[in-house]
Specification:
Length: 286
Amino acid sequence: MSKTFLITGVSSGLGRAFAREVLAAGHQVVGTIRKPEQIPEFEALAPGHATGMLLDVTDDHAVTAVTDRVEREVGPIEVLISNAGYGVEGTVEESSMDDLRRQFDVNVHGTVAVIKAVLPFMRRRRRGHIVTLSSMAGLTALPGVAFYGASKFAVEGISASLAQEVAPFGIHVTSLALGSFRTDWAGRSMVRVPRSIPDYDTVFGPIRAARKANDGNQTGDPARAAKALMTVLDAEDPPVHLVLGSDALRLIQQGRQRLQNDIDAWAPLTASTDYPADDTDTGPRT
C-alpha cells in the first residue's frame, strides 16, 4: 500500500538516496529543500509522486506550515525521515560558541521541531514511523567532531525517550547511527573550524587530513543504506537504534567496551555513594 513520506534534506546525499528508494517502492515522497531551483529536479525523479517543498528546519513556523500543507494537499504522513543536518569539525577549544549553537539549532532543534509537527497527526491516527539520522559519533565519542557528536548524542537520547512515549500509540521510532557514507557530508555539508592553536597539531592535524583524503572514498554506500532502511520500515518490530556501516559498528563497539571498562573498574566507588543498607533515615544530609 502506498504511503506518504516526509523526508527533510533531499537535495543530495542520504536524503536523496532515501527518496529514490522510497519512490522506487511506489510511495509518495514530500522532500524538503533549501533552494527553489532544486525543486523541479527533485520532482523529476518521479512526476506525480515526488513533491518538493522549501523548508529551513530552524524556522519553527515554517516547519508547522509545511507539515500542515503535506497533510492537507498530499496525504497523511505515515513516515518521517528527519535527515536535514550538517557537521562541524574542530577541536572544542578552537571552535566557537556560535559554532555550537548553530550545530544544535539545525541537528537537534530542527529535528525536534519536525517531530513535534508530525506527532499530533500520527498520534490521532495511532500509527506512524519516525526516523532520525544520528551518527557513530552519537554513540561513541570521536575526537575533532565534539560539537557534531554532541548533537547526535542528543538525537539518540531524544529518540530513545520518544520511542517509549509514543509506543502506546502504535508509533515507531528508529535512530540511524551512520558510519562514513559516500556523500558530501565531509565536503559541502561540513563546516571546518579554522585552526588557531598549534598545540593541537599532533592530535587533530592527522584527523582533518585523513577525513579530507577519504572524502569520496568512504566505505558506506548510500543506496544500500536506503535499502536497509526500507527493511526496517517493513519490520513488525523495528529497532530503536540501528547502526549502519562496518566502520560505525567497529568504532561503536570499541567505544562501548571502553565505557564498560570504566564502569567495571570504578564500580566499588560508584556503589560507595549510597546510604548504608541499614540506614533507615532517608532524609537529606548537610
